[in-house]
Fold:
Amino acid sequence: GNSVTQMEGPVTLSEEAFLTINCTYTATGYPSLFWYVQYPGEGLQLLLKATKADDKGSNKGFEATYRKETTSFHLEKGSVQVSDSAVYFCALSLYGNNRLAFGKGNQVVVIP
Amino acid sequence: DAEITQSPRHKITETGRQVTLACHQTWNHNNMFWYRQDLGHGLRLIHYSYGVHDTNKGEVSDGYSVSRSNTEDLPLTLESAASSQTSVYFCASSESTEPGQHYGYTFGSGTRLTVV
Structure:
């Protein structure tokens, strides 16, 4: 079935470091792919999305490219700030039923 | 502005009591969803609805029920609260789309429920 896998464990890094969070997927058809961000004490917010292969989603300095050949949608940011500390979820649309499948999320902690 | 609101933000209840969590959206979205979020499990789908009078079970539906009498509201009821249902609950909504097209969910701010 359709599913999303995110790398295990929290990510801790220093301010201005480069951030990568891996996301791979298994899907039938051509799903849309999403990254959501959850700041402490809040609900999830859509960060970026891509709807077809080779599309690049971008927002707030974050980017992710829909790679069909590697079934991946890795999230990157070139220079993180303390305010980027949050939990990040990768998700894909399930074909034909208006639902999303979420990965387990990655806690990102940015240290000043 | 359109929004999706959950109430209450925090709730403490006793084991065995019936509890209802509210979710109200003004996006006019057909699709509404309830998730619970627990450490180590990410988001798990409890129930969902694709329109008025439609409800469906998700992966962790035991002990929960929903009803959809209008487009705006999808209340989640815990029939007899248990300590295992202590969690943070999120409601979400989305537009109905053609297969292969999806615009993502809009989430509420969550309800933190503690069952003692």
Observations:
- The mean pLDDT of chain B is 94.
- The first strand of chain B starts at residue 4 and ends at 7.
- Chain B touches chain A at residues 31, 33, 40-43, 45, 48, 50, 90, 92, 94, 96-97, 99-110 (CB under 8 Å).
- Chain B has no helices and eleven strands.
